[in-house]
Amino acid sequence: MTTTSTAGRSFRRSGALCATATAVLLAALVAGCANMTSSEKSVPEIGYVQIQPDLKLRRLVVHNARPKGTVLFVHGFPETLYAWKDIAATLGQEYEVHAFDWPGYGQSSRPSADKFAYAPRDYANVLKGYIEQAGIDKQNLVIYATDIGALPALLAAIDDPVIARRIIVGDFAPFNRPQYMQERLQGLKEPKSADAVRAAFNKSRDEIIENAFTRGLPAASHYALPPEFKADMARGWQNGALTSADAFYHYYSHFTRDQDYLEANVAKLKTPIKVIWGEQDIYIKKEMGVEFAEKAHAELTLLPGIGHYPHLQSPQQTIEEIRASFR
Known about the structure:
This protein has 327 residues and is of the alpha/beta class. 47% of the residues lie in helices and 15% in strands.
């Protein structure tokens, strides 16, 4: 009897120890998986969405089961949605993230200019259409728009003051101030010289993709683009009869009209605006950012040592700017 009782107690103790060890192991595995999930980047999904009968947009989405909010990135020239892929993968751990190619860029539709003008105003309608089609909650949306994407975002905000909880814009030309623009951009804006500049751009695809992003920066500040981003720009430059340079040309042919509209209606901007500007931007001087911020009563951050593409030169700064906008 004594022997049997002792064995029973020993068996029960052994079983309890085994159960405890199993519980500890499971807890460790769960914790390890949680840590791995939090440290890994989310995977962007690339697909297409139809927003108008003639307009299909290629888009990037990073889903999140419990997002703190939604971020929509809007690119500039000569970019595609791949400009945001790495940033989106990082932010996707906390937010739902969207980006798309503008018509005329990447793999989005390229209607003829008589069907779609490629003007800032038209792009504003595309932006509004995308937000609606994607079912984005505007109350928890931050739009980050740069270069040619910024003016459309502001025009959309005049139309719909609750389009987002905040819009971050930078390194663009909100008003008709050619004196703040690089010489070739001035030439593209001037009807007498626009065709010649358009032709030069169309002959310079490889040079633009290779050098536009670091032009004007000291050698020590140069940075490399991800190879897949460069390849995507090159592949998408001529996607049909209309090139990205052609889309850029058409945008500029309507630029002054839409800039004047924004300046005349800047007091109607009710959406909270933040302005980010690369202090070393040679395409649009920082003085343009200063003037716009003053007229729009918007907060302005000048980034020392940064050029026209802050999100590519200093992506961590862009990530932190997004996080701050949700606090």
